[in-house]
Sequence to fold (295 residues):
Amino acid sequence: MNPQQLRIFMQAAEGRSLTETASALGLKQPTVSFHMQKLEQSAGVSLFRKQGGRMRLTDAGEALLPYASKISALLDEAEQLMSDYREQGRGKLKIGASYTPATYFLPAYLAEFQMQYPLALPTLTVKQAGDAIALLQSYEIDVAVVSLAEEPYADLDVIPLSEDPLTLALAPFHPLAAGEIGIEDLQGQPFLVHEPGSTSRSLSERWAADNGLRWQIRMELGAIETIKEAVKHGMGIGILPRRSVRREEISGELALRDLPGKVSVRRICLVYRKEDVPVRQAAAFIAFMRGKLGV
Fold:
């Protein structure tokens, strides 16, 4: 029994003639007759009898009808489900993100994306940027949104979305909190830094080396919020993404100053695999992000 045969069976079961059944399904009458014969051969019993030019169900046909209805409904549901995946981006969207984009950049865009694609189900894996890139390269996620320095990847497309500069964060009562800060002011100062492996840590070390800064690392911390709280209590100077401390700057809880000297560029980037056909929901997300940010 195939879906076409069952649909013809259900139409004919309503007491239609062969002509009416063919017209209702947009088929030719010989095609309807052929499928009805094949269905009866498959069942091994007669399913119809002719009465006054119309098709009437036999007892076997009456017994088959509820099963045909259930099968047809399931087929319609399956077709609609596949249409949702095909046309409306239904399905899981596996995103990897580093900490700053995941917390301070992506949520607003994800909210708007889900309004446009309500059947997509984003899953967000938050890792250091290098770990998120590794997940992308191993096909464990569909796309990554990470903070990166200007370092190309041969196997990936890296699309800059937004500037993501680092800034010095100080307690308001810190002696250097007022006025501009030069490299000489920071010599020997205690710093609170990200743990090794993060983009912020590697760029902080590059900045210190490029500018001949001899700093004192007082503490390595894995979370931005932890660094902020430690800075507020005067434990040292933090180097943090500017977008992560805007609220504290406005409230006066932290004083922010530009990094002096030579500073490497840091951006939030959209990253996906080259020469890859992404799943439909990932393709929709890539197009959405590029459209929103004009890149």
User: Anything to note?
Assistant: The two ends are 52 Å apart (CA to CA). The longest strand covers residues 156-163. The CA atoms of residues 45 and 60 lie 7 Å apart. The chain has a mean pLDDT of 89.
